# Entry
Amino acid sequence: MFIFGRSKVVSRFRRAPFLLLPVALLAVVSFVAFRPTAKVAMVNIPLGTPLILPTGWSAPNVPVDNPITMEKFVLGRYLFYEKQLSGDQNTSCGTCHDAKYSFSSGVGARAGAFEHASMPARTVPRLLNLGYDSVYTWDGHLHSLEQQVKAAIVKRGDFEADTNVVKSRLSYNPAYVQLFTRAFGSSEISMERIAQAVATFERCLISGNSPYDRYLNGDTKAMSASAVRGMNLFFDTTKTNCSGCHNDQGENAKCSKNIFSDNNYYRTGTFDSTGRDGGGGYTLDTLLGDPGRAAVTKDSGDVGRLRTPTLRNVAMAAPYGANGSVKDLFSVIHRYNQGGKHAFNQDPRIQALGLSYSQEMDMYNFLVALSDTSFVTNPAFQNPGVITASVDDHWVADNMSVYPNPATSFVTITSPDLDGAMEASVISSRGTTLWHHNVYAENGRMQLDLATLPSGTYTVALRSTTKQKMCKIVLEH
# Structure
């Protein structure tokens, strides 16, 4: 094995015959010591509920068999950012649902694990106020967040993972064993529990502190005069009737502050890149492009119809439309003002509005006023980092251990699937790479010399062509 120090190899152990057995057994012996029954040091879980509702908002829909608890929220937050859920171990929910873009990708359709893209490629929806929705995805083929999580883990274009492998990976980590025990009362790791935990985290992604919300609550200076005019246009049922679809779900309303989606399906013609489709003659077999809701209902009357997206934080997540064909928000407004593209199956309510350029700008400023910056910067929703458990003098993450931990200089890393050449990095809490070398693992083991780094808490990251592993390390010189 190689021992790495100040950017060069310090030495290489000679492999004498009497050392082969201890070296071969080292990883096995190490992981036997990390059984979940061992004493594991874990982060404290705060008291209280993670579901924080804005003033005047009623509680969202929560399944009876999956009540919201802080323990499930904490577990779900780690799992939301956990790359071990994917087949390539490089993809997490947070890979495409980026917090700074209101939990969308910000760049339209994204490839999933193994760089496979789903067909038809649709833009990544924003994740917020999901507990108030009754259907999910652009075509509404899923009816609960739990269903959506389980579907994403196995789907090509998303995580494309083997569920048995996923459960095995998580069970290697005593930190997850402890978190599952806290959240569900036993150490069992199942797809049902994974889905319930992630869904709990997602239900707590509540956004209701935009300038529009503050204006409704009495802060008359929260929105500009232009945004107020745009708001009045937006809710004018005789002039624009935008709120006819972008409302608070009508009969399914759970919140009086406007979720800005009726959870229904329409083809507006606004995002079609071509002109008239020619009208009629379309079947599910011959239709070019995205069949929309018809992929679920098998009804040609639903061709091209897609679910109404929420408009909250809409200015944070270009491009727009399920196909990402419109690159900026003002262009969306302008296309609606023109009455769409007169596409086949276009909703008859989409007609030219006759708005002036000034009125289009007022509408634009109102939509920008739906942006909740406190939501996208909320520390409770950000990536919590690598989940690591401390067992005696070992710290364990994924199926990798780093010991001694705390360390003074040399640390040993073991993992059953460590083999061959890879890159090793030590990263500060600010995300800065402070130490980087090419390394080589033999028999599931390697040793690093970190004597040049100052005392502190860091993340050790190992990357090969197929996987990445990370674990925390404390240095005390």
User: Anything to note?
Assistant: The longest helix spans residues 17-33. Residues 1-38, 250-254, 274-287 have pLDDT under 50 and may be disordered.
